[in-house]
Amino acid sequence: MKILYFTSTGNNLYISKKLGGELLSIPQLMKSNDLDIEDDAVGIVFPVYFATSPKMLRKFLEKVNITCNYLFLICSYGSDGDQNAFRIMINTLKKRGLKVNYANSVLMVDNFLPVFDMAKEKAIKDDSDIDRQIDNIKNDIESRKEYILYKKLFTDVPFIEKVLEKTMTSKYHILVGEDCIGCKICTRVCPQANVTLTEDGPVIGDNCEFCFGCIHHCKQKVLYINDELNTDERYINPHIKVSEIIKSNNISD
Predict the structure, then answer these.
(1) Please, which residues have CB within 8 angstroms of residue 62's CB and are 6 or more apart in sequence?
(2) Cα–Cα distances in Å, from 223 out to 151, 177, 184, 215, 243?
């Protein structure tokens, strides 16, 4: 079994590790142009961003060649939008001639700082419940269960993608404060190599995924976003090391 994953704060890498199999980072696959994936079972594990999926993931699905007998999608989400993300991905894969056999989601800490207070999120999202959800999904996959999670959908897919992405880029902005120590973690965890470090500190480029990995991993809290609910709290999955995320996402070297 191969699992293709996209992660920024570690949630989806944690899910992938719990499910087992050979783990393949989507940013690294895109970097190496290694787009031929074959196995008995192939899974895609990804986060929900504003009721859709990361831009890189959608581009990846348009290029990747997957050959398998059982294809599954697992997403992590914090409040809602998982069903819309599934709809987008399932439609994209269908156009590529691929049938999704299983799609399910895991409710985890939502790291979207303008909407969620990280202190409250960490307090209400129970690790044991998260593990229970993943274990149930793992059992489903091992038994090759056929299941697609569909709840009430918002509206048509093209409308969702255009409106939500426009909202993200126009309303929210990653800002840079002072006291940068030049650790370069922000540049190394970014899946798009969209952060560069200058003498004046980090510079955010125009190809942002809004994964907020650079913000959450900045120990000095130099990076932040407008309209944050709690500027004192950040979130990184406690079971994942920053070195693992750097290995998954560092595509600039």
Answers:
(1) 92, 96
(2) 36, 6, 12, 5, 19
CB atoms within 10 A of CB 232: 9
CA distances from 117 to 8, 126, 221, 242 (A): 18, 16, 15, 22
pLDDT, tens only, 162-214: 655 665 667 778 889 888 999 999 999 999 999 999 988 999 998 888 899 99
Bridge partners (DSSP) of residue 201 are 198
Instruction: Name 109's Cβ contacts closer than 8 Å, sequence gap at least 6.
Output: 11, 78, 118, 121, 122, 125, 235, 237
Residue 197 · residue 222 · CB < 8 Å: no
**Sole residue written with tokens 């269960």:** 145
Counted residue by residue, the chain has a size of 253
Residue with tokens 């125009």: 206
227: phi then psi, degrees, rounded to nearest 5: 70, 25
Going by their DSSP bridges, the two strands 195-198 and 201-204 should be labelled as antiparallel
Take residue 217 and report the two structure tokens written for it. Answer: 């991993």
Q: Exposed (0-12), middle (13-18) or buried (19+): which is 243, by Cβ within 10 Å?
A: exposed
What DSSP designation does 222 have? -
Give how far Cα 203 sits from Cα of 158, 182, 197, 208, Å.
Answer: 31, 12, 6, 12
Summarised one tens digit per residue, pLDDT across range 43-95 is 999 999 877 888 899 899 999 999 999 999 999 988 766 777 888 888 889 99
Tokens of 194: 């969209």
Report d(CA 4, CA 57) in Å as an integer. Answer: 10
